[in-house]
Amino acid sequence: MGYVPPESPMPRGSSQGFGWHRMGAGFRPAPRRYGEPRTPGEGELMVKRSYHTDEIVVHWDSELCIHTAICLNALPNVFDVQASPWITVEADSAEEIARAIEGCPTGALTYERTDGAPGEQTQAETTVIPWPNGPLMVRGNVEIRDATGELFTAGPRFTLCRCGASQNQPFCDLSHRRIQFHNNPRVVSADRETAQSPQDIDPRIGP
Ligand code: SF4
Ligand code: FES
After folding, report:
1. Residue 96 to residues 79, 92, 102: CA-CA distances in angstroms?
2. 3 state DSSP class of 91
3. What is the largest CA-CA distance in the chain?
4. Whether residue 67 is found in the same domain as residue 153
5. Residue of the nearest CA to atom 2 in ligand 1?
6. Does residue 29 sit in the same domain as residue 82?
């Protein structure tokens, strides 16, 4: 049976949560490149779900969600993982829902206004914040490309893995907690402070 995408982020602390809790043997499907279909042969992604009113369409991408619970705390009447569907888009105004969505750090939540109101205003400058012991929080007009320049995806918000342990590269999947990743956001090595040339920084560089 092919992989069935989740209906929602699971409650924080759940043994079947959507973050690192589901790393147990036999639970997580085999890693694959971002953009490859969930179920071989279907030829298309199945990871986005959409929720509509006449004013707004809300999209949730399970591939990006790491269950930060920011949306749940911002608008618990709209975002509720105990409900089905987990997003009740009629439960608040389109303005409030849009504001809550823009707080989602991973880009898992996005929206379109279908009532003529302006959509999300992308931050003019691109910012990258190395989160202490966690991912890179990226905001701006962001394109994620592979080394050949091929576009994976684009959007206003992403949370990128900084620890190397994510099974959902290049995105964070909360594995930094599982491996107890510990790293300060800003570290300068002594070698760099005294370097006279690139050779002093990394002996593999140079002739
Ligand atoms: S704020 Fe975004 S990443 Fe966090 S639980 Fe909601 S959809 Fe997932
Ligand atoms: S930083 Fe979160 S999984 Fe690597």
Report:
1. 12, 7, 10
2. helix
3. 64
4. no
5. 104
6. yes
- For the Cβ of 56 lying below 6 angstroms from any atom of ligand 1, the answer is no
Q: What is the number of structural domains in the chain? A: 2
User: In the structure encoding, which two tokens stand for residue 177, read together?
Assistant: 């907690």
What's the whole-model pTM score?
Answer: 0.80
Task: Tell me, yes or no, whether 38 and 135 share the same domain.
Answer: no
- Quote the ligand 1 centre to 166 CA distance (angstroms): 17
pLDDT tens track for 39-88 = 444 444 457 899 999 999 999 999 999 999 999 999 999 999 999 999 99
C-beta of 65 in contact with ligand 1 (< 6 A): yes
Return the CA Rg of the chain: 19
- 194 is a domain residue: no
Q: Which ligand is nearest to the CA of 76?
A: 1
Same domain? 76 vs 33: yes
Does a structural domain hold residue 207? no
Average pLDDT, the chain: 83
pLDDT of 23 > 50? The answer is no
- Please report the atom of ligand 1 found closest to the CA of residue 67: 5
Which numbered ligand comes closest to the C-alpha of 8?
1
Regarding whether 63 and 25 lie in a shared domain, the answer is yes
pLDDT(21) > 50: no
CATH assignment at residue 37: 3.30.70.20
| Ligand 1 site, residue 67, Cβ cutoff 6 A | yes
Question: Are 153 and 34 in contact, with CB atoms under 8 Å apart?
Answer: yes
Q: What does the alpha-carbon distance between residue 23 and residue 116 come to, in Å, rounded to a whole number?
A: 43
Residue 119 lies in a domain: no
Which of 60, 70, 101 best tests ligand 1's pocket when mutated (most atoms within 8 Å of CB)?
Answer: 70
User: Among residues of the chain, what percentage have pLDDT more than 90?
Assistant: 65
Give the domain extent around 70.
2-113
**CB 8 near ligand 1, within 6 Å:** no
